[in-house]
Each structure stands twice: as structure tokens, then as C-alpha cells.
Amino acid sequence: MFGWPAVGASLAAFAIGILTGRVWSATTGAVLAAPFCLFVSGYPGISYWGLVALVANAGSVLALRGRRTVVAIVALTPFVAIAIRLAFAVLSQ
């Protein structure tokens, strides 16, 4: 899965994982988000933020595994910010 469906599915999986405390769901979200993060790391203006989001997604899974829900939510900030920025760029064309 790639593109916007993967972004939506990964955000949904992260939300389910955080709300229910299920690590496997958040892991699914991180795996689904990985190709998107790697792809956008080649965009000018985003460059290394894609890699930061990739690492932060893994950190979110580890934080959820340690039952640190707030840290898991904060770790998702780079991924959500990139998704919002690109969605705005696409919709404003």
C-alpha cells in the first residue's frame, strides 16, 4: 500500500493502537507509514523530516510498548505534520 491510502490507514492504525493500548496495531501503522516517510524524504523542503518521522514512528511504537501513551502521541507529531503539509499542498493546487 502506498500513497494517501497508506497514510490514512497508518493514522487509523496508530489511533486504534493508542486508544486501545495494542502495540501490534501501532506497529502496523509504523510499517504502513514507512514507504511514505522514505518517499517524502526526497522532497525539497521536507528532506530529512521524512526520516525523522520514520524514526519517531518507531519511537511511538516503543513508547506505547512501555505504556507511555503521551510520549507515543507526541512522537507521531512529525508524521502528522508532514501528512498535513502535503495534503494542504496538494489541495491548494
Question: Which structural traits does this protein have?
Answer:
single chain, 93 residues, mainly alpha, 5 helices, 0% strand, globular
Descriptive notes:
This protein has 93 residues and is mainly alpha-helical. It has one domain (4-35, 45-91). It is built from 5 helices and no strands. The protein has helices at residues 4-20, 23-40, 48-65, 69-75, 77-91. The longest helix has 18 residues, at 23-40.
Concise structural overview:
This protein is mostly helical and 93 residues long. 81% of the residues lie in helices and 0% in strands.
Mean pLDDT: 93
Domain unit count: 1
Shape: globular
Strand residue percentage: under 5%
Task: Spell the H/E element sequence.
Answer: HHHHH
SSE map:
Layout: H1 4-20, H2 23-40, H3 48-65, H4 69-75, H5 77-91
Helix pairs in contact: 1-2, 2-3, 3-4, 3-5
